[in-house]
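Tutorial, part two.
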Amino acid sequence: MATLRAGRSLQRLARSPALLRPQHTSTSTRLGCTHLHHRPRCLSTTRPQCRADATDAFPSQLANAPAALLARPAPTPTVPQTLTEKIVQRYSQGLAPGKYVKAGDYVTLAPHHCMTHDNSWPVATKFLAIGATKIHNPQQIVMTLDHDVQNTTPANMAKYGKIEAFAKAQGVDFYPAGRGIGHQIMVEEGYAWPGTMAVASDSHSNMYGGVGCLGTPVVRTDAAAIWATGRTWWQIPPIARVNFTGIMPEGVTGKDVIVALCGLFNNDEVLNHAIEFTGSTTTMYSLPVDDRLAIANMTTEWGALSGLFPIDAVLKGWLRHKATEASMYSAPTATSSPTSSRFNHSRLDDTLAAPLAADKHATYAKTLFLDLSTLSPYVSGPNSVKIATPLAELEHQAIAIQKAYLVSCTNSRRSDIAAAAKVFKDAARFDNNGITPKIAPGVEFYIAAASLPEQRAAEEQGDWQTLLDAGAVALPSGCGPCIGLGTGLLEPGEVGISASNRNFKGRMGSTQAKAYLGSPEVVAASALKGKLAGPGWYERPEGFAGVRRGVGDGVAEEERMISIEDALDLLVREAEQAVSVGEDALSAASDADSGSGRAGTTEAGPRGGETLTEILPGFPETLSGEIVWCNADNINTDAIYPGKYTYDDAFSASPSKMASVVMQNYDPTFASTIRAGDVLVAGFNFGCGSSREQAATAILAAGVKMVVAGSFGNIFGRNGINNGLMGVEVPGLVGRLREVFSSSSSSTPSSSPSSDDAGKAGTPPPIAEPALNKQSLDSPPPAPMAKVAGGEALTVRTGWTFTWDVRRSRVVVREGEGGVEWTQVVGELPPNVQEIFARGGLEGWVRGEIEGGG
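Running the prediction step on this input gives:
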């Protein structure tokens, strides 16, 4: 069929033979251009006088070309992939020959590196409990201590001692408390390397994308699996492209970019997506690596699972500098391998010889754009990253502050410290007779470098001392106030401004305090003036009409450059799409005329040409049960398994006790309503909130083997598979149940959902911030739970039957005895994930691998 469509498309294009001829452009008549990002289209004003065979290279070029270049094989045609997909392809195992991974695929992943921090001991406990004794690949693992470094109690020191001893016994690179924040260590030590994939048991591993490394978080069970086998599973998320245009004005930073993105695109546009940042050469030159790290870091708060920048000239220059620095200043360490073993020019030569890049026609789930030239300094808050306000508006309000923080892995590198110090140096030069001014009375200013090397660099530059002279209080390099641990937390009624990444209510101290986020220079200026303020470096341009952003790539048509080959390819793809749509319509009409559809049966989703999924021996081809309907969105993990039982190990070790309280905070009658073998169906964003694994195991304890939802919270989805709880997203079913069972609707079903309705029904409300900070510090907070209107039962036994046909990747819904039956195509459950379910979860899979010597 694909060949037929391509043939038809080319036949149509052949009617315009000029489009199919080789095109030649005269350099003497090519239109001039003054800006790289304003380059005109590649069009010629002259016509060639004769046609010639295509020439690969002229003899003079071949004579002078390096032998290695001539010996390089011609590239093999491939399926167009995004940069994310190309990196995942490189680190996926067991792929079928010729398989090119794409968004939505489940893969067995062997990441280049895996980092754990203070949670290394809980991971070690899991690792030992599943029967493992030796880490599969010690060079793959990195352990850091960074979260609670100010805590010197005997209990914490004992935990830190056990982690260090375990790392030493296993031969793993280890970085002690005070050495730096784990994510910064991963970057500056060369573990997060361009074109590779690195994971961490912490949500801000997205930061590695700032250096072209695909970084994404994993839960503790995943980390234990990687320790034991070198592998875990991953489902490639939908991939969004965020295209930058323009050039950042003076006084605007990467922090302003990501704060603006979180606030201007605040309706979950990139929730659970992988992001790829793109832009013209000129635009990307205005984003240095430290700004990219800040942007990638806070894609977590934007709701994304990764934030990846390209491997471009800016990054290459930064890498060369770091490699030179490592060769000159690398100091020996007793607990880790030398920096120069990773950061060196020889390794860079290999990486940069053929850097990975997204293919020209790669497919993205969506494209957004932001014009950097229209940005001004932005501030996030109070108490929400979804509220972003231009600094100028807040300055007019004269909002007094009591605490300021230059801390965290987001913005406390040497360049950030230098920017903050410049605020005080400028004030000394212009307003204080050369004497460093003090911070405002009543303000406490806390500073902590992202790592010890970054602090030493700031000390050598004199910037660290400038901040100390101004009255700043130095803290050890670590997470500290950013996660509400240690000295200087916000007290009730106080207002704080921080250069960190999260300002959820209560995260940095009291729930009765207000927290704002801003760039290092805004933090410093606010500390100096005692109120939210900037240093005055930004000048608003004349004719400013607001921030330019939206859907699409943001490139004006008159500025877009497109080659003849690209134009031809675009026409071919548009023609193929038109042919495909027409053939599908004809096929559907033909089926209707022939009466091939069974009475009372409809299908929502693609028809014909189905691909059957391989089923492992012993794994059921279909799973079925009665639908039990919970009509609520944002049912969070505390609603599923109450927090008061989460750390009661004895209670959580008893399946019967867990089953007695499952969904208790949603519906106290749920446990008495549910039956073994039922299929639990809920609304959107099911399982949002914390990373507690008991949310999945409690449902299993109640005898439920399968959960269906409009969508799942990402971490719950991982915990479900890791613990053997099957889950599938069917938005159309949620809409249909609401149509039939809500009080405002008829109790008699009228018709089944169409393919158009299947993906649109039941749009979830936007995720809001929590009332209190009861959720995990490593998880974005859930929205308030949206329940049904009063008077309706919270848990309904529907009498409907739900069947998941795993082989055919579809679900079948029977709307009661003798009712309408309809089907919906769903994602594939591949054999590698079937194996995890068959072994009762990831820990069972790891045990099997260990016993089998895998």
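The longest strand covers residues 795-805. In part three we will examine how such features are distributed along the chain.
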